[in-house]
Design a protein that fits this description.
The chain is of the alpha+beta class and 144 residues long. It folds into 2 domains: 2-54, no CATH class; 57-126, no CATH class. The protein has 5 helices and 6 strands, in the order αββααβαβββα. A 4-stranded mixed β-sheet has the order 4-3-5-6. A two-stranded antiparallel sheet has the order 1-2. Strand 1 and strand 2 (17-18) form a beta hairpin.
Length: 144
């Protein structure tokens, strides 16, 4: 079933991008065929479609609205990292304090001040000895 779903998924790709018309045709043909196990195969096929959609959808959050120039640079960077066809949406999230957070599929890139503060808080709570990542300060232990 999974192998067949992958084959169908690959049939729907044109230059590495999903073709909506091909997806529609494949779904119609599979449902019309009523082949044994066709519903299970469609479930696997739909899962592949959702994963592909997630990998081509980016959510960019920032504490303040981003300038048009910065938005363009972010979109260009995402396009070079993930390929063409990225659907990018931008949102304002004051809780980040500064910086930005990007999510593409299951990948999360968090360069926000909030993430840095959370990491600093965790390093104090865990009592880890040595340098605090990204800060360069030495932690000191009071236990002689």
């Amino acid at each position: 079933m999974r192998r067949d779903a992958k084959k169908l998924f690959r049939l729907c790709l044109v230059n590495g991008m999903l073709d909506d018309d091909r997806v529609r045709i494949v779904v119609q043909q599979v449902l019309k065929s009523r082949r044994r196990g066709h519903l299970a195969m469609m479930g696997h096929f739909m899962r592949l479609l959702k994963l592909d959609l997630a990998m081509h959808t980016a959510m960019v959050e920032s504490a303040e609205p981003l300038s048009a120039d910065l938005r363009d640079r972010v979109q260009d960077g995402l396009k070079s990292a993930y390929g063409p066809g990225m659907n990018t949406s931008f949102a304002q999230n004051p809780e980040l304090i500064g910086g930005m957070r990007m999510k593409v599929g299951s990948d999360v890139y968090d360069g926000s001040v909030r993430a840095g503060l959370d990491a600093l808080e965790k390093s104090f709570e865990s009592g880890v000895q040595g340098k605090i990542p990204g800060i360069g300060f030495e932690t000191v232990s009071n236990s002689g």
